[in-house]
Amino acid sequence: RIEVAMQFRNTVLYETGAGRTFPGAEKFTTPHKARVLFLCTGTSCRSRMAEAWANHLGSAWLEARAAGIESHGENPRAVAVMHEAGMDISRRESARLTSELLAWADLVVTVCQQADESCPALPHGTRKNHWPLNDPATATGTDEEIMQVFRASRDLIRTCVTSLVVELRTREAARR
User: Fold this and answer.
1) Which of 78, 76, 119, 73 is nearest to 94 (CA)?
2) Annotated catalytic residue: which of 52, 112, 133, 161?
3) Is pLDDT of 9 > 60?
4) Is 160 a catalytic residue?
5) What are φ and ψ of residue 28, in 5° steps?
6) Which residues contact 45 (CB under 8 A, 6 or more apart)?
7) Which one is catalytic: 13, 57, 119, 122?
8) Rounded to two decimals, what is the model's pTM?
């Protein structure tokens, strides 16, 4: 309703020569992108995969970042399986959790038990979800068996992110 009213007001302002827009109009016509922070232990696998899927699946209205309680760097197997899915996560730095990242986020999704237990208090209004995902980096076996664990993890994370995107879009639609 507000967006329709703002568009009507902008049209009236334009047609009467009073101007094309008015100060603050963009606040009503440009929706706020949901900001999701995926948090894991070392931000080398699960959170980076989730960040890539979220930015890919919800790019028009969602912004995602990944961070870790610690910074373990890049996991080449995670990079490889995401590359198989057409995603390049090699260009992203392994980020450590900061108070600025927490303040930035609308939603924090912890993707492992340690991150869930170590997550600091969230700012007022920031929600938290927990996904108890197994760490593919702990997989053992042959190279192919380990890669299969990484692929299964990648696919499970895509499913979780898809559900999250649907949930967030449904909530946004319900607010309008």
Assistant:
1) 73
2) 112
3) no
4) no
5) -95, -25
6) 75, 77, 78, 135, 136, 137, 150, 153
7) 119
8) 0.79
pLDDT tens profile 135-171: 999 999 999 999 999 999 999 999 999 999 998 888 8
Is residue 87 within 8 Å of 154, Cβ to Cβ?
Answer: no
Supply 145's token pair: 């068996």
Both structure tokens of 13: 């302002």
> What radius of gyration do the chain's Cα atoms show?
20
User: Residues 6 or more apart from 20 whose CB is under 8 A from it?
Assistant: 10, 13, 14
45 part of the active site: no
CB under 8 Å to 170, separation ≥6 — which residues? none
Structure-derived torsion over alpha carbons of residues 133, 69, 136, 158, reported in degrees to the nearest 10? 50
Catalytic residue, candidates 40, 64, 81, 133:
40
